[in-house]
Amino acid sequence: MSAISVGQAAVLGVVEGVTEFLPVSSTGHLKITEGLMHIPVDDQSVVGFSAVIQVGAIAAVLVYFFKDIKRIVSAWFRGLTHKEERYHHDYKFAWWVIYATIPIVLVGLAAKPLIDGPLASLWVVAGSLIVGSGVMWCADQMGRHKRGEDDTSFKDAMLVGCSQILALLFPGFSRSGATMSTALILDLDRVAATRLSFFLGIPALTGAGIYELKDALGAGVGAAPLAVGTIVSFVVAYASIAWLLKFVAKHSFNAFVLYRIVIGLAVFGLLATGTINA
């Protein structure tokens, strides 16, 4: 019997699609939802399922930013064979994304037992939601929002890329929240910070999904729930991306900060009363 039903997979696909790119922690929300549905959050197949359906959200990024990605990838290939193309920002940016992904891959492989075990606890999720809120609020206040996407540098990409490790180790901190906050501290404007977060998430999340696929299929989640969860997350994530880019162009991150605090406190309350298991 599958550890996750098709109906549960659809619900989790919606949660993944809505929260993957919002700075509210998709991993945290998935674990909270799994807890409410009495799905064991530390089960290996469940952890694998959560990583695999992220691929649906990443596919939404690939479709939404297809023209940008095509331009960047084309510049990278041209630069491999034509020296004059290597001064183009898109060529350099492609390499920056590759370099910035290496730290999270190394940490992810080295710390996998902790990530799938003790750090998967909902106590960690609740605490990370609240702590991450403070970081996000400070970053939004500190940042001068004066630099656009064309002003990004290798240093920016590496620092923002490395910040993904926080979300990897502390589910609830939010990969989007960590990357956007770091970009804001580096004085990027909110739209540039959000777009950089999207691009840096593509290789990391795609790699995680492919790596976990064998565990999800081999340890108790059937192909049907995986397919449903991934497709639903794609559709919902596409709409979420479009909404977020419009929102950050005119608003601060304060609404997300407040939301994270409320959810974190609510999870602490549910855990303390035994309504959900850690």
UniProtKB/TrEMBL annotation:
Keyword Methyltransferase part of the UniProt annotation: no
Domain of life: Bacteria
Enzyme class: hydrolase
GO cellular component: plasma membrane
Organism expressing this protein natively: Streptomyces sp. R39
Family matches, as HAMAP family: Undec_diphosphatase (MF_01006)
Alphabetical keyword list: Antibiotic resistance, Cell membrane, Cell shape, Cell wall biogenesis/degradation, Hydrolase, Membrane, Peptidoglycan synthesis, Transmembrane, Transmembrane helix
Protein name, per record: Undecaprenyl-diphosphatase
Pfam family, one: BacA
Statement: the UniProt record of this protein carries the keyword Transmembrane helix: yes
